[in-house]
Please model this.
Amino acid sequence: MTTTDSRTWRRWLGVLLIVVPSVLPLSVASAQATPKLSVASLEVGFAGRYKVGCWTQATVGLRGGQEPFAGWIRVVASDSDGVPTTFTSSRPVQIGPAETPAVRVNIRPGQTDGQFVVKLVAMDGEVAAQRTCYTGLEAGAVPPALGAIDRLVAAYGPPVGLGEVVRAELINAPTAASTVVAQVNNAADLPRDWFGYEGVETVILSTSDPTAYRSLPADSAAIAALERWVELGGHLVLFSGKESAELIGPGGPLERLAPGKFREMAPLRTASPLETFAGAEERLGGGRIDFRVPRLEEVVGEVLSYAGRSPEDLPLIVRTRRGLGQITFAGIDPPLAPLSEWTGRISLLRNVLGWSLGVIEEQEQAQAWTGQGFDDLAGQLRTALDVQFVGVRTAPFALVAALIVGYILLIGPGDYMFVTRVRKRPELTWVTFPTIVAAVSIGAYYLAYELKGDQMRVNQVELVDVALESNTIRGTVWTHYFSPRAERYDLSLKPRFADVQLSSEEAPLVAWLGMPGAGLGGMQGGAGQPTLFDRGYAFSPELDRLERLPVQEWSTKTLAGRWTAATAAPPLRATLRPDAEELVAGELTNHTGVDLDECLLLVGRWAYSLGRLDEGATITIDASRQPRSVKTQLTGASVGDQLPARRTEGGAAVFDPTSADVARLVKLMLFYEAVGGRSYASAWNRYQHFVDMSSLLQTDAAILLARAPGASGRQWLDEQRPLVSDHDQTWTYYRFVIPIKQPREITVPAGP
Model:
């Protein structure tokens, strides 16, 4: 190498030593700055609170990549049997480069602990990004689901002090169930679909800070979903005090939720109405206050507390029925002083919410349910439906034990004695042993075939609730079916209501129904049950179809369907008015197209037994009909019912937790609180709590409960073929919410 070449080489080496170290960090930084399509986060429920086995919303946080993306968001979660289930966003999503949108997906978690797999799936079906999110209490994990018997309250706006109410409840009535308040801080986190509130018992809106609502126009999807949820059986509590002019006044975001028209703000300088309503001993503000409260006119509902000479002067707390649900309005601001400093606020809030504070004999309740494996009436109903299959028998335990002992004797001492003492050729065990195993296996299969059969069986409970004022109809279907073969089903629901023509307002909502509790097969029992179907199945994006739902051989699956509709004409013509002597008077005419049987007219704490009401017939309610208490009528024996079989040590009759009487179970679920709640049922009714109409008995409405034995419940379709058999059993009940005109205080009649 020449001197010139050596100098040139050293010069270039020096340049490289200077340039490369300076360029390399820039290249690495450029590579790190390149955006990549990914799933950034997953939030489930209300501030991480959601109930197992119920519909709830999941919010998926996304991060866009270099190129635009168009496709679907899919969330995979286990159902109550541990089978992977896929939920898809209702519409395709588009993500621009480096964008960070949040997308909602409605899901139904089937286990309190588990995992969620979030996928970004392109239009061609290719998975573009994926993330697995585990449940746990550590940072970054999805919080575990609440149990089916836990009470979930969703609150939006400034906290009103529910923590104090919950603590007081735990002190007075400690139970295995808990009350959880989910505080939502962002209006964008409120559900856009009414069934996103399915696991919620009560929604509370507090308005002392109006800025929380300024991003919610009156016609927003969030307000519409909340209002629809109330109409279909929800309970909303609205606290609206000093900011009412902006929020419930004309054009306000909450105007549609108020029980009357906002007129003006008025002064409230006496605390006695609130003290009386709360039943508090301590005076509020020393008895003198200076509040600004809304004055409402044309109030609809019952005024529970008011200032002035009459309820029309200044209603403060109003309970109003809205369709099949109710709204409780309170024209005060619990987060503000002096209410926030008043010890009577606990009683005030509890009375507004309608929560009782009774002490429950927890030891006795626990004894009643020992060994049951479930702690909610929905679990008992599932078990009752399971034992009702016609032609499907369960092998007695004694028979199973005898067969196991016999099998052990055959493959053990029996085989040994045969090959060594009888044949005297021990090597024959290579033939006799597998022969015995094969013969016993074949015999067990044919015995199971004889007991279980080869035909599908379907047992179903169908509820149809009608609000006569608006002709709004809500249908609920619980279907338990037995499959004789390992098979996959494509299931959809076709709503029907007797012979009434329906106009569907939205697609039916289909799902599975899990088993509450921590027992075998329960949703709180840890890991899912072993399954042969690892591929799982999927919900359609509209949630109106179960696609490729697997069921093992000689196994059962429980389905839950919900639907809403409207009718052109009322299926029941009712004219009811209050009467000081007869409690209520009027006429009922049946236009459903089917005969109604076991009719009960429930008014407040009282019920009339009306017997049978044929199609086109009219029943008159007058002084000749003497009512009895609601509890007596609903817990008494009807045709085909079984009698109660258990009493407490004190002699009080309670519901038998081992009962398989479907009719009695259904009635107990439909009016759970009215017949005594857990003190009578020995169980909770919180998994399917929305079917309990006890609270409507405290409003200006009567409820007609009737069974329709002639109404077919064949609503499920498997690939457009009815999911039916020749031995189906259906329990169909109708409830009609009937307004009572000109309600007033009614004198309770003498008698039972």
